Each structure stands twice: as structure tokens, then as C-alpha cells.
UniProtKB/TrEMBL annotation:
Signal peptide: none
Family of this protein: Belongs to the binding-protein-dependent transport system permease family. FecCD subfamily.
Record's protein name: Iron chelate uptake ABC transporter family permease subunit
Chief localisation class: membrane
Keyword flag Protein biosynthesis: no
GO cellular component, one term: plasma membrane
Lipid bilayer topology: Multi-pass membrane protein
Native species: Shinella kummerowiae
Coiled coil: none
GO biological process terms, semicolon-separated: siderophore-iron import into cell
């Protein structure tokens, strides 16, 4: 386990270093090293590129990736469905509809209002999914089905607004929906970091409860777990974590699906082991996706959400193919 964590940390460090070095203006390794250590020989231009432009972007990508991977791990456990991700709770569609409405219906909304609208839209949708799925208790199947239905409704609202909104407003909203960390700054990084500390710690402390609920509601109840309460608290944590990530960077898909699956293959079913490994994998995925999006067709930049979609869609198809003979 320790050897794996060291290997993943080294991989992450390599991605971070490459992200600081490469872009529209690439820096040599020597120039990057001089800039990072604050050498007198480092040029002011390189310092501005590294510390003002690229470092906040990389840090935001790491936080968003770790958050999405953690939220995905929670979702897989409480839904007991290998194809589930935070979007099942309506988080993505709720955030998308709220941001689209804010941009299209409000005349020149403040920039800081968009992340707030995304978070509250995600939270409102998650609450609605949970309440509508309550029938003297909850079940993962009801949550999934109602989540799919409400997500479709929210997607229809988003499409309606995009069809009748001003072209400029719609284009602005679509850029946000694509998922990107291009507008990162150190203030946004700090806000997201301090917001995520408590939910991430609580999620990792709940590893034993997730291990129990993964065996099924009846088995968990027989071992003394209050299943409905645990599921509700886990949905709250998932919403706080994933909603904040979506509000900060838009819709970056499939990270919450890919990272937990890879982590469970590497370290087994224990969530105490899955959480740190999934967080490192998720952070590496988003940072690498942002790097690829910046350099593959430079100077044009692809949003990180498009790159993760290109990775995640084949992985989703692989999961479906692996379960083609599974009944129920």
C-alpha cells in the first residue's frame, strides 16, 4: 500500500511539473527549476507564467480531481452499482440548469454568482432526488431511477434555455458546462481547499460504514447500521464535495467513475484504502487532462471535461461489456 501511494505521488508530481513547464510558452527544465527556487537569474516573465497563471490552475485541477474521485467512491458504495457516479444524484444536471438559468436570465450576473448558482442547483437536485425516493426508507434503485428522471428534466430545461437565450450568453454557459480550470486563481483555490477539508475528512472517517452498506441494506441492518441515516449523511457529504468541485470547474465527467474503479482494482474493496488511492488518481487525471487540453492543439485550449470524456466513455463501455452477462 505504501509503495503504491509513493508511486502515485511520484506520478502526480510528474504531471504537476509538466503542467508548470508546458503550455503556450514552454519553459526548459532548468528555467522552471530556477523559477521555482526563486533564483535571481529567473526572469520576471517566467515567474508570472509559473506562479500567477499555471500554479493556481494546477492546484485547482488537483483539488477538483480529488474531490470528484472521493464523491464517486461514496456514490459507488451507497448505490452498490458499478456504473453509478455523482451525476446519478442529479448534481451535474442541477448545477448545469442553475448556471444556464443564471447566465441567460440575469443581465450580466456577477462572476462569483455563477459558482454559487452551480452549487445550490446541485444541492437542490440532490435533496429533491432523496426526498422523492423516500418510501418509509430509501433504496439505491429508487434513488438511481428518480435521479435519472430528474436529471432528464433538468437537462430539458437547460436545452430550452440554450435554445431561446442570447447567442453570446449561451456560448458563455456552454464554456462553463464543458468543464475547465482555465479561470483558476489563488482565491478560488483557497476557497475550495478550505471548503473541502471537513467533508473529505468526514468521508474518509466513514470508510467502515461504507464497507458495511456495500454488502446490502439487510446485511448492514443486521450488523447494527442505521442504513437510511448513513445513506442520507453520505449523500450530504457527496453533494458538499462534488457540488463544490462542479461549482469551481464546471462539469468534468467520468472522474468519479474511473478513479474509484481503478483504486479498487489496485487495493481491494476496503474504503480506508480506496479513498487515498482514488484521490491521487482523480487528481492526476484532471491535471493530466488539463495539460493535454492545453498543449495538444495549442494555442487553442480544449476544456479538461472534453479530455476526461474521451477517456471515460471507453471506460464506461468497458464496464458495460464486463457486466453483459450479469442479471438484475
Amino acid at each position: 500500500m505504501i509503495r503504491l501511494l509513493v508511486l502515485l505521488a511520484a506520478l502526480l508530481a510528474g504531471v504537476v511539473t509538466a503542467s508548470l513547464a508546458f503550455g503556450d510558452i514552454s519553459l526548459s527544465w532548468h528555467a522552471l527549476f530556477e523559477t521555482i527556487i526563486g533564483s535571481p537569474e529567473a526572469s520576471p516573465q517566467n515567474s508570472m507564467i509559473v506562479f500567477d497563471l499555471r500554479l493556481p490552475r494546477v492546484l485547482l485541477a488537483l483539488l477538483v480531481g480529488a474531490a470528484l474521485a472521493t464523491a464517486g467512491t461514496i456514490t459507488l458504495a451507497i448505490m452498490r452499482n458499478p456504473l453509478a457516479e455523482p451525476g446519478v444524484l442529479g448534481i451535474n444536471s442541477g448545477a448545469a440548469a442553475a448556471v444556464m438559468a443564471m447566465i441567460v436570465l440575469v443581465q450580466e450576473p456577477p462572476v462569483l454568482l455563477l459558482p454559487a448558482a452551480g452549487f445550490f442547483g446541485a444541492a437542490a437536485m440532490a435533496v429533491a432526488v432523496y426526498l422523492l425516493s423516500w418510501r418509509g426508507g430509501t433504496s439505491s434503485m429508487r434513488i438511481i431511477l428518480i435521479g435519472i428522471g430528474l436529471s432528464s428534466l433538468a437537462s430539458a430545461a437547460t436545452t430550452f434555455l440554450s435554445a431561446f437565450g442570447e447567442i453570446g450568453d449561451v456560448q458563455r454557459a456552454m464554456i462553463w458546462l464543458a468543464g475547465s480550470v482555465y479561470d483558476a486563481n489563488i482565491v478560488k483555490v483557497r476557497l475550495l481547499f478550505f471548503w473541502l477539508i471537513l467533508p473529505l475528512v468526514l468521508a474518509w472517517m466513514s470508510a467502515r460504514e461504507l464497507d458495511l452498506i456495500r454488502f446490502g441494506d439487510n446485511s448492514a441492518r443486521s450488523l447494527g447500521q442505521p442504513v437510511d441515516l448513513v445513506r442520507a449523511l453520505m449523500i450530504v457529504l457527496c453533494t458538499l464535495i462534488s457540488g463544490a468541485a462542479v461549482a469551481a470547474a464546471g462539469l468534468i465527467g467520468f472522474v468519479g467513475l474511473v478513479a474509484p474503479h481503478i483504486a479498487s482494482r489496485l487495493v481491494g474493496p476496503s474504503h480506508a484504502r480506496i479513498f487515498p488511492v482514488a484521490a491521487l488518481i482523480g487528481a492526476s487525471l484532471v491535471a493530466a487532462a488539463d495539460l493535454v487540453g492545453r498543449v495538444i492543439i495549442a494555442p487553442t485550449q480544449l476544456p479538461a471535461g472534453i479530455v476526461t470524456g474521451l477517456i471515460g466513455a471507453p471506460f464506461f463501455a468497458y464496464l458495460l461489456w464486463g457486466r453483459r452477462h450479469v442479471r438484475g
